[in-house]
Design goal:
The complex is a heterotrimer of chains A (380), B (180) and C (193). Chain A has 380 residues and is mainly α. Chain A is built from 17 helices and 7 strands. Chain A is globular and about 75 Å long. The relative contact order of chain A is 0.20. Chain B has 2 domains: 30 residues, no CATH class; 106 residues, Alpha-Beta Plaits (2-Layer Sandwich). Chain B contains 5 helices and 6 strands; from the N terminus they run αβαββαββαβα. A 3-stranded mixed beta sheet of chain B has the order 4-1-6. A 3-stranded antiparallel beta sheet of chain B has the order 2-3-5. Chain B is elongated, with a radius of gyration of 25 Å. The chains are: A mainly alpha (380), B alpha+beta (180), C alpha/beta (193). Chains B and C meet through loops of B and strand 1 of C.
């Protein structure tokens, strides 16, 4: 199967050894989308890696932005203002919604249900409209900055956001009606691809896959970052860990994300979104135009980059598919000495071989869909 | 569960029929409820924040505002901007003799606009820039210049962030290195 | 909440008690420890890596059941040159630790931890692919992202970013397959021909 197979999203090659329709053994090969993310990051200043992180998991770009910038902020020893933290939380949850829409829609499509896919894509469009309103791009967001955000909210964003999230959830209600009780969909999903939680953990599988197997591990809960400790949300867990549970967990997470967005919009404080510190954040443009000091800062920051102290940090955030971590090593210069991305898809895809062992050939497709391997993130 | 099948089919058809009739009604009322548009005839409504391709601001006197300081060239992560500066007798003293953007490399990140200290390069709303050959995606200065009056939306948008609310400066963070 | 002031960096989340336990148990294998920005880090001697990892996983007070990441850092110019970095997390105890082991340039070899955490399989393959570090005891140490004919290891600091690779002649994967299916057809339908 693959590298380009009509019923898989993402470019991956699965070599299957079959006995009739039973899978005797399989080999998963990734790497078709390898672009040298880490090498690129190491050859540019810290801020230049931010647009590259959009392209890791392109279904949820904001979470990657946030993850990288939080790691860099931890390394620099600076924290973004509270309003920026709230806005990042909103952006993260919007991205999580768009990722789950993509995953569920693509899964439905590959199980030959075209209509839910169209509704999911339409719902995702609503989320991407919000991305566009936040930062000017739908997918390649480049929104979060080290010590702040690219820009503050546009006027009237709160109302638009509430309306669009509600519209997306309405569309998703239709998907729910079409899929959740559909016997064909359930036949394909139930009882397939299940692995015990211990095996999943041994493989380093995180995110909805692990939670569907009953382990309530969520980085947002375990090590709260941003303002997740001030917000009220549930971590949905499944019981059996099969594909249907994974689908239901993603489904429940969508509703939780909408809840988080609602709360964050309600509590959103006023104030600045950027750190006013010429060592980390580019100065406000109004000052750059009119004052010499800020102009010099601007030139220094752009050409030399921000200079962190020498050291190393690891920062984990809850990506849409699991724990997304960034490991940065600095030697005191303006460029990262090492920028490592711990991609959840990579570890999740690794467990695919065990998930489909002994299953039918047709079970590969729902399992692969629910693993939700995103090539950009898995292959980097 | 098999006996439930026919009912579920009816339920599913009800959902899709609801969408169908709502969209049909929207079409008849000329208030479309569908997500797609008839692209070349209808223009997409972008948000003012929309980042299209970067263009150079052309002042009222027909000259570019750029002073060829090279900051956008530095800030560009993919090195798609090339500037050859030259001197001029105008009050700005410098101008870009050659200013080229390789749009086959540009990734619309907007760092050039953020880095620019002169409001000279901005992200326009232009996106239909596909070409059939590589050379066509090499944009020279004369292609990039856009009169300032056509960039009103974008300039208004980025000017909102020129003055940030005042905040106390960040407290210096002490190092917490405990080497043992 | 709306004062807009800077939030202080969170208190160190990683438990330095992990490091104290490690130092106590392995006084000579643990070469150095630090907790920069709250990340508990221990540098261990590569020879005793497996022993330390087994202890970290099995000790009930530590219980590191989740291998988050394996990677390497190339400190070109220093001796030993490479540093293999392991990030561990414990779900029951909710703490993290980072293990590091230095391996020299001339023989970049270290024991594989696949026997302790199965998830190390691909992570070690990736590290081998990118840095050329050999993990001894790994069941299937091959390149994972790049193709077999790729020369060099791209994340090493002495590998230039712009370096180009020689073209590889196309592997003929179709020919043996075609021959096989032809043989099968002959076997199945031969008697009707």
């Amino acid at each position: 199967m693959g590298p380009s197979h009509p019923s898989t999203h993402g470019t991956v090659k699965i070599t299957l050894k079959l006995d009739g329709e039973r899978i005797v053994d399989s080999q998963v090969e990734v790497g078709y989308l390898h672009r040298g993310f880490e090498k690129e990051c190491e050859s540019g200043e810290y801020y230049k890696a931010i647009p590259y992180t959009d392209r890791l998991n392109y279904a949820s770009p904001m979470i990657n932005n946030v993850g990288y910038c939080l790691a860099a902020e931890k390394l620099f020893g600076v924290a973004a203002p509270i309003r920026a933290q709230y806005l990042r939380t909103i952006a993260c949850e919007l991205s999580r919604m768009s990722d789950h829409f993509t995953c569920i829609g693509a899964a439905a499509l590959e199980l030959a249900a075209l209509t839910p896919f169209l509704y999911c894509v339409q719902a995702r469009e609503q989320i991407w409209d919000l991305h566009e309103s936040l930062c000017g791009a739908r997918v390649t967001t480049n929104y979060v900055r080290i010590g702040g955000l690219q820009s503050d909210l546009q006027p009237g964003f709160e109302e638009i956001c509430r309306a669009k999230v509600a519209a997306a959830l309405r569309l998703f209600g239709d998907v729910d009606e079409l899929l959740t009780k559909n016997p064909i969909f359930r036949d394909r999903m139930e009882g397939t691809g299940a692995l015990p939680a211990e095996t999943l953990l041994a493989y380093g599988v995180t995110g909805p896959l692990l939670r569907a197997a009953g382990v309530p591990y969520d980085v947002r809960r375990a090590e709260p970052y941003l303002v997740y400790d001030r917000l009220d949300f549930d971590v949905p867990v499944g019981a059996s860990g099969d594909n249907y549970d994974r689908y239901l967990v993603r489904f429940a997470e969508l509703r939780q994300s909408a809840r988080i967005i609602e709360q964050a919009l309600r509590d959103l404080p006023d104030g600045p979104v950027d750190v006013e510190d010429p060592r980390f954040r580019w100065p406000a443009k109004g000052k750059v135009f009119n004052r010499m000091e800020e102009l010099i800062d601007q030139f220094k920051l752009v050409t030399e980059g921000m200079r962190p102290p020498a050291g190393e940090v690891y920062q984990a955030v809850e990506g849409a598919n699991g724990e997304l971590g960034f490991y940065l090593v600095s030697n005191g210069t303006g460029k990262p000495w090492k920028c490592r991305c711990r991609a959840p898809s990579f570890s999740n895809t690794q467990a695919l071989r065990d998930m489909i062992q002994g299953a039918l050939l047709a079970d590969v497709i729902p399992t692969f869909d629910m693993v939700n391997m995103i090539g950009g993130e898995c292959d980097r | 569960m098999d006996t439930m099948g026919p009912w579920l089919i009816v339920r599913g058809l009800l959902v899709t029929a609801r969408h169908f009739f709502r969209n049909l009604l929207g079409f008849l009322r000329r208030r479309p409820t569908i997500a797609t548009i008839l692209y070349p005839e209808e223009a997409q409504q972008w948000s003012p924040a929309m980042r299209g391709m970067p263009v150079l601001v052309q002042m009222e006197n027909g000259k570019e505002r750029c002073v060829a300081c090279g900051l956008c060239e530095w800030a560009c992560p993919v090195d798609c901007i090339t500037i050859y500066p030259a001197e001029t007798s105008d009050e700005v003293e410098r101008y870009p003799e050659i200013f080229t953007i390789d749009m086959s490399r540009c990734m619309f990140c907007g760092f050039c606009e953020e880095a620019c200290p002169e409001e000279a390069i901005v992200m326009s709303q232009r996106v239909a820039i596909a070409t059939t050959e590589w050379r066509g995606s090499l944009w020279e200065k004369r292609d990039l210049l856009v009169p300032v009056r056509e960039l009103g939306t974008r300039l208004d948008h980025i000017r909102r962030d020129y003055e940030r609310p005042a905040v106390p400066a960040a407290a210096p963070v002490t190092e917490r290195v405990e080497k043992q | 909440m709306s004062d807009g002031t800077q939030q202080p960096i969170e208190a160190p989340r990683s438990d330095p008690a992990v490091l104290a336990l490690l130092r106590e148990r392995f006084p000579e294998a643990v070469l150095a420890t630090h907790a920069y920005r709250g990340d508990a880090t221990a540098e261990v001697a590569p020879a005793s890596l497996l022993e330390v990892c087994t202890f970290l996983r099995d000790d009930p007070a530590l219980a590191f059941d989740f291998l988050v990441d394996v990677t390497a850092v190339d400190y070109i110019g220093s001796v030993p040159r490479f540093e293999v970095v392991y990030h561990l997390y414990s779900l029951p105890r909710n703490h993290r630790v980072r293990l590091k082991a230095r391996v020299p340039e001339e023989s970049p070899r270290i024991a594989s931890v696949t026997s302790i955490w199965r998830g190390a399989n691909w992570l070690e393959r990736e590290t081998f692919d990118m840095y050329g570090i050999h993990f001894e005891g790994h069941p299937d140490l091959r390149r994972i992202y790049l193709y077999e004919e790729f020369q060099g290891h791209p994340l090493r600091k002495d590998y230039p970013k712009e370096k180009r690779q020689p073209l590889v002649t196309a592997r003929d994967v179709a020919a043996p397959q075609a021959a096989r299916s032809e043989a099968r057809d002959r076997e199945r339908y031969g008697r009707w021909q």
